[in-house]
Amino acid sequence: MKLNIALLAGDGIGPEVIEQAVKVSDAIAQKFGHEITWKPALTGAAAIDAVGEPYPDSTHEVCKNADAVLFGAIGHPKYDNDPSAPVRPEQGLLKMRKALGLFANVRPTFTFPSLLDKSPLKRERIEGTDLVFLRELTGGIYFGEKGRKDNGDTAFDNCVYTRAEVQRLAKKGFELAMTRSKKLCCVDKANVLETSRLWRETVQAMEKDYPEVEVSYEFVDAVAMRLVQWPNSYDVLITENLFGDILTDEASVISGSMGLMPSASMGAEVSLFEPIHGSYPQATGLNIANPMATVLSAAMMFENFGLTEEGKTMRDAVNKALEAGVVTEDLADGGKAYGTKEVGDWLAANI
Amino acid sequence: MKLNIALLAGDGIGPEVIEQAVKVSDAIAQKFGHEITWKPALTGAAAIDAVGEPYPDSTHEVCKNADAVLFGAIGHPKYDNDPSAPVRPEQGLLKMRKALGLFANVRPTFTFPSLLDKSPLKRERIEGTDLVFLRELTGGIYFGEKGRKDNGDTAFDNCVYTRAEVQRLAKKGFELAMTRSKKLCCVDKANVLETSRLWRETVQAMEKDYPEVEVSYEFVDAVAMRLVQWPNSYDVLITENLFGDILTDEASVISGSMGLMPSASMGAEVSLFEPIHGSYPQATGLNIANPMATVLSAAMMFENFGLTEEGKTMRDAVNKALEAGVVTEDLADGGKAYGTKEVGDWLAANI
Ligand SMILES: CC(C)[C@H](C(=O)O)[C@@H](O)C(=O)O
Ligand SMILES: CC(C)[C@H](C(=O)O)[C@@H](O)C(=O)O
């Protein structure tokens, strides 16, 4: 296969972890006879510094014409805690999601046996957890009309969803459930919100097309509780943008493997793959960041091209490294800590 | 003191736990020389069955003219999973909050040493947790304009806040922080929402009036994570209605003492006190429900009248019962389980 991949390294540790994912992907390409062309482009604070905006048109061109986007992380302390600054990296993120039509954010939470003890939850609560959130990413209150009235003393944000938007996301949810344990949970606040009632009735109407999938409907506050109590009782969950933002982050910390969690944002044309961790500015350039989440994101990318064997080979390499203790300091637990680059080299050598 | 208390027992186990709280409150009144007049009124499914609506005008009259409201729980399975039913108990709840102006929901999460092992979190994560959420309860997306367009294919919910609403809630937050460790966390999503930017700028402008309070600003998704990771790093948190709904429920399960957590909803005129647990329909009439959360809610009520000693005496009785193993089956852990009524009797006898 010939693959054109847009490479958005971003800020902080982004470039370092991306470098390792490229290295491991290239090893996969060589082994399986694919040809990857990497197309680097600017994003985030790095792009603001260079050209004054976080998602420049030139970057959009590169992404739009690529077969997929591999993304590092964005964010820089100089933009922190100032949500009213005129230009901020997050705006680039939202603009990119919208412009590329990345409507479904796929966020798995699973456990690695060797990392179970890192979880804040007791072992018996977390063991066996393997769930996936599908978060709607281009609608809802993030993108509705927002503004001020009464000389700035009243603020509003409108949350809007159309039936077609819900169907598009829910379809992915049903399809994913069919490849897993055929359990789907629709998360909403239908006892209060009209948009949630639209979500619920739309999903209910789709149930007949997937007779094998067992669908449950739960309120967002109840899910926020059960995620901490019995995370392993969930499989596939679908939800709207803001609920998804909160719940996927909550879910990410329960496993103890947060630093290893990959994600995908799927669009109709192009999809994007990125680790869920941030840009960890303090670690920039120190060769200590854990590259595994980015490598696993690249694995999701291969799988999304239908290259299942390639994805599995990457995952296996990560598991092997974990077992062999070839890990960065966040996982070293007093043992030897390898550098970001060394872990990348080891993974590439073990493909 | 002469106290007129509206008594809204509600559904399910509501009447049983309320009965115990009344018994213990009466013992307090006798000991400290107060006179309580209880004014029962209908609410929830019970009210729908009786008069066709969940918060009848007659109930509102009783509440409005009372010094405080003591509330059990509402909700009945026949209204579950049908968010589009024409009349539902939750509507009564929202109507009551708005009509009584209950703008600040106070939700403490604390631990009881004897219950620490019931937490899904590891002991070292949860030990020492003692935080309070102030959730705005009569504004935001719950009460903004909502509806459908395009023949029902588009739904919308508008989230609206005024500066005055934020100030009112934040003032309570600063005041509460001053009586505790002087740490206040403002939870918002100011990197995306205009209402959140209004929240943040309003709280920032109030900082100068409380120079001793150290204020932090955190995004709702980050708080959803840190609540699971380091709950004991928080003290007072203030937030808007929907974020508060999700985060207070998440916080309630981390301590292992969920069944014991009280809450208050404060208004300008009258305030309401209720356990955070639900109506547990399955346990109705079985004399097995734990009355302690309702008793602790009554303790908050006394404290809110400035009757600190009375509140403390009730709390001490609950602690004593826990230590003596005078508990309902949810806390019995294989030991002897007392009935709802017996726990109530014991608490009253130990005032
Ligand atoms: C940075 C922010 C705008 C973003 C979001 O809320 O979507 C982030 O929290 C995420 O989840 O990717
Ligand atoms: C029943 C529901 C409307 C209510 C809410 O969302 O406010 C409940 O979840 C709560 O938190 O009291």
Automatic annotation (TrEMBL), chains A, B:
Substrate binds at R97, R107, R135, D221. Coiled coil: none annotated. Signal peptide: none annotated. The record marks Y142, K189 as: Important for catalysis. It catalyses: (2R,3S)-3-isopropylmalate + NAD(+) = 4-methyl-2-oxopentanoate + CO2 + NADH. Its main location: cytoplasm. Mg(2+) binds at D221, D245, D249. Its cofactor is Mn(2+); Mg(2+). It comes from the Bacteria. Residues 4-347 form the Isopropylmalate dehydrogenase-like domain. HAMAP family: LeuB_type1. Homodimer. Belongs to the isocitrate and isopropylmalate dehydrogenases family. LeuB type 1 subfamily. This is 3-isopropylmalate dehydrogenase. The gene is leuB_1.
